[in-house]
Amino acid sequence: MAERLARLMLGAGSPVVTRSAGVSALPGSPMTPDAARALARVGADPVGFCSRQLTATLVREADLVLTATRAHRAYAVGLHPPAAAATFTIAEFGALAAAVSGVWVALHRTPVARARVLTDGVRALRGLIPVDQPDLSDPYGGSSRLYRATLRRIDAAIAAPMRLVAGPAQTPTRGGRSFVSSGL
Predict the structure, then answer these.
(1) Residues linked to residue 67 through DSSP beta bridges, in sequence order
(2) Which of 39, 66, 154, 181 could join 44 via S-S bond, C-beta 3.0 to 4.6 A?
(3) What is the DSSP letter of 63?
(4) Does some domain include residue 64?
(5) Are β-strands 177-178 and 87-89 bridged in parallel, bridged antiparallel, or unpaired?
(6) Is residue 180 part of a domain?
(7) 21, 54 contact by CB (below 8 A)
């Protein structure tokens, strides 16, 4: 869900690439119907999702790895230890990104440059800012309400950083309102 939500927030045609992979994924599986419905409710496109397993290559190729839990973070870092500095839980990244100067990030011209500066700022703050509840609940097998609650937590963590990366012209709207202020 985080990947599709990030794509929506970054806007169509963003040069920032988002990918999704799971630590316990059944490769080739579609998104669960509850996840697809939760995403569709907020305007994100669940169509074409196909699960895949997280691999050392995916971790190595990423500039930033966001995970649902600290255990997933440990798994990703175990696949490629040099990625430790750029691997965060989604909630941790959101909390640290909130402390990075948005003015400094916004001074950079492209979404890719803004993403790199934001990630560098988040890295610099690791360990300096406490993060309450760094893990997200795994909604798999749960109710549609649990999927929506998890999506709200993802939204709360990544909305501001994605707005900074996308830049003011790319902030998606829905019904004339900012996506991040809409309810799930």
Answers:
(1) 89
(2) 39
(3) S
(4) yes
(5) unpaired
(6) no
(7) yes
What is the residue type of 50?
C
pLDDT tens sequence across 85-137: 999 999 999 999 999 988 889 899 899 999 999 999 999 999 999 999 999 99
What does the alpha-carbon distance between residue 150 and residue 115 come to, in Å, rounded to a whole number? 24
User: Coil, helix or strand for 99?
Assistant: coil
Count of domains observed in the chain? 1
Q: Which of 17, 19, 34 minimizes the C-alpha distance to 184?
A: 34
| Residue with tokens 């995403």, as numbered in its chain | 39
User: Which contacts of 10-14 are long-range, i.e. CB under 8 A and separated by 24 or more positions?
Assistant: 10/111, 10/162, 10/165, 10/166, 10/170, 11/166, 11/170, 11/171, 11/172, 14/111, 14/166, 14/170
Per the structure block, which two tokens stand in for 38? 């939760």
- Residue 111 sits in a domain whose CATH number is 3.40.50.2300
d(CA 137, CA 148): 11
Tell me the residue type at 152. R
Task: Find residue 53's DSSP bridge partners.
Answer: 22
Owning domain of residue 72:
2-166
Q: Is the pLDDT at 169 greater than 90, yes or no? A: no
The verdict on pTM exceeding 0.90 is no
